[in-house]
Amino acid sequence: MEGTAESVLLAHDKDVVAPGEVLAEGMEYLPSHGTYRKNEKIYANQTGLLIIEGKVLKTIPLAGVYIPKRGDTIVGKVIDILMTGWRFDTNSPYSAVLPLKDATFDYIKKGTDLTTFFDLDEYVVCRIVQVTSQNLVDVSMKGPGLRKLKDGRIIRVNAMKVPRIIGKRGSMVSMVKQATGCTLVVGQNGLVWLKGEPEQEIMAVDAIRKIEREAHVSGLTERMKMWLQEKTGKTVNSELYEEPEEGAAYERRYDRGERRDYGERGGDRGRFGDRRREYGGPRDYGRRGYGRDGDRRGGSGGDRERREFRQRESNEFPSEPATPPAGAQQPEAAAEQSHGRHDSEKSDE
Prior knowledge:
- Helix content is 31%, strand content 22%.
- By secondary structure, the chain is of the alpha+beta class.
- It folds into 4 domains: 60 residues, CATH 2.40.50.100; 77 residues, CATH 2.40.50.140; 80 residues, K Homology domain, type 1 (Ribosomal Protein S8, Chain: A, domain 1); 51 residues, no CATH class.
- It has a 5-stranded antiparallel β-sheet with strand order 1-2-4-7-6, with no helix packed on it. It has a 5-stranded mixed beta barrel with strand order 10-11-12-14-13. The chain has a 4-stranded mixed β-sheet with strand order 3-8-9-5, with no helix packed on it.
- Strand 6 and strand 7 form a beta hairpin.
- The chain is extended and about 85 Å long.
């Protein structure tokens, strides 16, 4: 048992738990998927593998049927060609539909034979973009790594064991790729596509089946490393595979570019651009102003507009000279008299 005097952890990571089993006591730990809280105790509500992530407790079922969820990347099989897209088998009780607009970035003309894109019984990697309350599933092929799968072989695994097959940060599947040299795509719906030399494919299938059988056993990563090295004679790196932060870096570059494009000249672009930029939009298109009429928040663009507006007014409506009061002397005449007086004084001298 681990924890403080107030909170106590009654189970260990990777333990197999049963429904109704008490996992922790106290309010320090939080329940997640497959667990629930009653009073100050956390219970398991299904038979599965306990996963402890910091203070969060969740269970992964040892068996079950895949239920589509939004954001999942799956391997689907074309089972029907519709008038407006394709229907896929998702290895679940619910099929999915791929609309034409989400199938490709290319323009599809009316009357085009859709089998030229995806034919019956072909497999694709797609992403679930919508699941309605009636379990109507929509998928998309627009995204990195989403494509049609050619050649290779498809194997079915228990969808509940997919997290163990992938491993933490992809460590397990990365080891299988290193040892066998095969290309693997593991769908979250329990379909795995692999391609390589026939002997290497057989070895990759054996490795995946071994992971599936022993998914509930702790220390599986190290045992699989030794097994793969013994079978292939290659040195396998079991370090955690970390994805490069290209997405985060791209977001940072995009944010800087957006501020550069729309920030310093926000008012100018807003005034002379389209109506969306004219009124700023949700981001207000810059730190220096909306650019509509150069209000208090408007920056360089608003100042420019005010100057131009005043210049136009001065050109179109020139101000008339004020009429001097009666008996007042004109400035030009006064200046001439002053010069004449000075000249006469000099001549007298």
